[in-house]
Design goal:
about 700 residues, alpha/beta, ABC transporter transmembrane region fold, Rossmann fold, 3 domains, 6-stranded mixed beta sheet, 4-stranded antiparallel beta sheet, 10 strands, about 65% helix, about 10% strand, binds adenosine-5'-triphosphate, transmembrane, membrane, nucleotide-binding
């Protein structure tokens, strides 16, 4: 069964069995998006979210359709469990911590703006109380007996006070709003900076973990903005609370029985906003993978690097269909959400109307029974309205704080994971150099994602590797595809650490030295080199010194990138990306020469950079360029005294290497010079003879044809 069929079936099953609702009920929108694992029912909506949904037991027994690539993702279970905890009680419990967190974030990002927000927020609360007291005074003056012109005149000072209170309230509101609006972007920017640091400092192995990638996507798509939301909505909640406190204080001073009426008036609003926020949150959470797929597919459609192949292989309709498949799921989920939101709104509105009626009836009753005077009843109506507005703000904010808090917690977990997976700093500096590099009994398995259950886990990429790389020599790693050459190169370059065993520069275990310091002493010409959207100069100089023209010329000459640059319209200053105006696109081989120049540039000083690793550096080069390149590589070892590690399938060039290491299925099966390995036989001689025979046959064929 194809993956998406399974996902769709699963979505339908989840609707039928998991929610206890009919198939077209809105209970299963997120599963319709195909994101939830088969054994997970959709979470129970509504305030009683802690209870298991009806039908969950059925679902447990149901044989779900396997769709491991898309659905078997245990971290969704974590989120569903967390979303299910979103009861009112859970929200209330988390509120102090979340608001506290928001205040800390706000204080760190903009202490002045946070202080201004607090001062003007308090001012608003005080002005609200003042306005209510003035309202009561005005009504008392007017309604103490039958209203007359004199009474209205007598009420004028109170009216002036009321007007002043309202002006003060408006001014405080505007100033608090300004401070808050200044605070939010600062908080978002601070979050973005932390996020950028986390994702660029984390070890490269983290990107092999799909769970980490999901978190990174959520952080990038929503997490940073939600930090701003958390601060804004927390301030809103606190401001609303001040408004309520003001109204409640004034009402309570009139008559304590008026206090519970505020609560009655607000309950429906509470329910509506809580339900709506949780629905939205769950949808976004469950659509993460769908949105990520859509984003990926759309990138393939718009990227100029894929544009040609997309057309050659007539991939357009297929990609569009794939996009539609995910987009339809998302749309369906969003449409269901819209319906559910409307239902919640209608229900909340109706219940709100009933509650207001109950409040007014209660006020009438109190008035008739002489519990409160007419003026107090009038002021109470105004106070209830004020409190309703403020409570509305609080309730919406509380839900938003809770919702933002979930995203922020997710982002903080990402930061925590990233911190835990960021190589430790402050270790000993890397050794200046080495007489030899020793790889001792190294075993390495690529990290698996949280979703991998281990049943079909691949074996180690390297197993029991022992090796010595002498200083100033060229060491070639050869072997068939997947034999572990690049993995060994990544371990040698300090990108990955061995699971067991050690990589040592003389007596120093590289696990004990500062990884960034180590990497600064290694130059790498990567197999999957990046086409940096920068100028040709920046592509070569990268993190190295900029103002050394001789060094640049040497590097470009060694990589034969000088001829590439000579043909560029603006030489070294040509921008190498066609997406920009006046950008230029080098050919694949030209890019490879620039990438090689980057490696030579970094490794120019062999005392500072004693190791150069070149992973298939000539795969896109023509025969002449390839030959020249290998000559340069050997010359580099001779000139700088650096050790050169070369990975290549071109065995004719490997012949020049001082040591050739043959890998097979992650193990070193032979090592020695070309002559020794040819004499010994085995994989190396087999591969060599295959390539040599192909050339001999071609030459013979050409001779006969001639
Ligand atoms: N990032 C990764 N995550 C998981 N497995 C990986 C990763 N990179 C490589 N592998 C696996 O590790 C094994 C060794 O791969 P490696 O890239 O080191 O081989 P190689 O000898 O360089 O191959 P080639 O000649 O094709 O470049 C392979 O089985 C491969 O599937």
């Amino acid at each position: 069964m194809r993956a998406h069929d399974a996902a769709e079936n699963d979505a339908e099953d989840a609707q039928d069995a998991g929610s206890g609702a009919p198939p077209d009920s809105p209970a299963g929108p997120a599963d319709a998006a195909g994101c939830g694992p088969p054994a997970e029912p959709p979470p129970e909506p509504g305030p009683a979210g802690g209870a298991p949904p009806p039908g969950a037991a059925q679902e447990d027994g149901r044989a779900g359709d396997p769709d491991p690539e898309e659905l078997a993702s245990s971290h969704y279970r974590v989120f569903q469990d967390r979303a299910r905890q979103a009861t009112w009680w859970a929200m209330a419990r988390r509120m102090p911590a979340l608001v506290g967190r928001a205040l800390v974030l706000g204080w760190r990002a903009g202490p002045g703006d946070l202080a201004a927000t607090a001062v003007f927020g308090l001012g608003m609360g005080a002005a609200t109380a003042w306005a209510l007291v003035a309202t009561n005074a005005v009504l008392e003056e007017v309604f103490a007996a039958v209203p007359t012109a004199d009474r209205v005149q007598a009420a004028l000072p109170s009216l002036a006070l009321l007007a002043a209170a309202l002006v003060a309230r408006g001014a405080c509101g505007a100033l608090a709003g300004r401070a808050q609006a200044r605070l939010e972007p600062r908080v978002v920017l601070a979050a973005e900076r932390r996020f950028n640091e986390a994702v660029t400092e984390v070890e490269v192995a983290a990107f092999d973990d799909s769970d980490f990638n999901d978190r990174v996507f959520r952080g990038y798509a929503t997490g940073c903005d939600q930090r701003g939301n958390l601060v804004r909505t927390s301030v809103d909640a606190l401001t609303g609370l001040l408004g309520i406190a003001a109204a409640a204080g004034v009402l309570g001073s009139m008559h304590p029985v008026l206090l519970p009426l505020i609560l009655v008036a607000m309950l429906p609003q509470w329910w509506g906003s809580a339900a709506a926020a949780r629905l939205r949150y769950r949808l976004t959470l469950r659509l993460t993978r769908v949105m990520r797929r859509k984003f990926m597919l759309q990138n393939l459609m718009i990227d100029r690097r894929t544009a040609a192949e997309l057309r050659s292989y007539t991939m357009g309709p297929r990609l569009r269909a794939e996009f539609d498949r995910f987009a339809d799921r998302e749309l369906e989920a969003r449409l269901r959400l819209a319906t559910r939101m409307a239902l919640i709104q209608v229900t909340g509105g109706a219940l709100g109307g009933i509650a207001t009626g109950v409040v007014f009836a209660a006020l009438g009753l109190l008035l008739v029974q002489g519990v409160i005077p007419l003026a107090a009843a009038g002021a109470a109506v105004v106070a209830v309205r004020v409190a309703q507005g403020a409570l509305g703000t609080v309730l919406v904010s509380v839900n938003q704080v809770y919702e933002a808090g979930l995203y922020v917690a997710d982002l903080e977990e990402l930061e925590e994971t990233a911190r835990a997976r960021t190589p430790r700093r402050g270790l000993a500096p890397a050794p200046q150099g080495f007489a030899r590099i020793r790889v001792q009994d190294v075993t390495f398995t690529y990290p698996r994602g949280a979703d991998d259950d281990g049943d079909d886990a691949p074996g180690p990429a390297l197993a029991g590797v022992d090796l010595e790389l002498p200083r100033g020599r060229t060491v070639a790693l050869v072997g068939e595809n997947g034999s572990g050459k690049s993995t060994l190169a990544k371990l040698l370059s300090g990108l990955y650490a061995p699971d067991t065993g050690r990589v040592c520069w003389d007596g120093t275990d590289l696990a004990r030295v500062d990884p960034e310091d180590l990497r600064a002493r290694i130059a790498v010409i990567a197999q999957d080199h990046t086409h940096w959207p920068m100028t040709a100069r920046q592509n070569v100089v990268m993190s190295g010194p900029e103002g050394e023209p001789e060094r640049l010329a040497r590097a470009a000459g060694a990589a034969h990138a000088d001829t590439v640059v000579a043909d560029l319209p603006r030489g070294w200053e040509t921008l190498l990306d066609k997406r920009f105006a006046r950008g230029h696109e080098p050919s694949g081989g030209q890019w490879q020469r620039l990438a090689a120049a980057r490696g030579f540039h970094r490794g120019d000083d062999g005392a500072a950079v004693p190791l150069l690793i070149a992973d298939e550096p000539t795969s896109a080069l023509d025969a002449r360029a390839e030959h020249r390149f290998f000559t340069s590589l050997h010359a580099h070892a001779g000139r700088t005294g650096a050790t050169v590690v070369l990975i290549t399938h071109r065995l004719a060039s490997v012949r020049m290497a001082d040591v050739i290491v043959v890998l097979e299925r992650g193990r070193v099966v032979a090592q020695g010079s070309h002559g020794e390995l040819m004499e010994r036989g085995g994989v190396y001689r087999e591969l060599w003879e295959l390539q040599a025979r192909a050339y001999r046959d071609d030459a013979a064929g050409a001779g006969r044809a001639g």
